[in-house]
Automatic annotation (TrEMBL):
Annotated ranges, domain GtrA/DPMS transmembrane: 16-142
Keywords (A to Z) from UniProt: Membrane, Transmembrane, Transmembrane helix
Chief place of localization: membrane
Official protein name in the record: GtrA family protein
InterPro entries referenced in this protein's UniProt entry, alphabetically: GtrA_DPMS_TM
Localization, UniProt: Membrane
Membrane topology, as annotated: Multi-pass membrane protein
Residues passing through the membrane, by range: 21-42, 48-67, 79-100, 112-136
Amino acid sequence: MRISGFVLRHYRRFGRYGVVSVGNTAFGQLAFLGLVAGAGLGALEANLLTAAVTGVPVFFVYRSWVWRCEGRARLVREAVPFFVTLIAGVLASSGAVVGVDALLHGALLSRGARIVVLDGAVVAAYGLLWCIRYVVLHRFVFGRFGAVAGSQGAEPGAPGEGVLGEVAAGG
């Protein structure tokens, strides 16, 4: 299968994933900026707190609206892998924040400019993982298991193989 076929099969779900991700990012960035600029928290603490607060609601929105899974969430098949991807994102963004913060330590930047650069590091780290996370969530969490368990995890007309199986199979 060509990449264009992949895009056609997943554009609706990927669009919903994008809407949720943009909303979550906007809320998360406002919270991060508020915690750093307003509450005076360190960049690492603000990043961890923001991820902790947004993680649970995003899990349920991804599950119910993006992948159309119904019924009770399954701890081992859905929640644990989802939160592993969340923790990977938090580790990447926290590493970026700590690294950029260390680089900025001696820089002659205003407080506002420093906060904007740190916020950019958070967005860049999450951005790098965004597409990878979609594939992982579709293939291993909601898409494949949702369809197997009888919920509405698959889009109408989309094959049940999952993202990696479709691309790897070449057809």
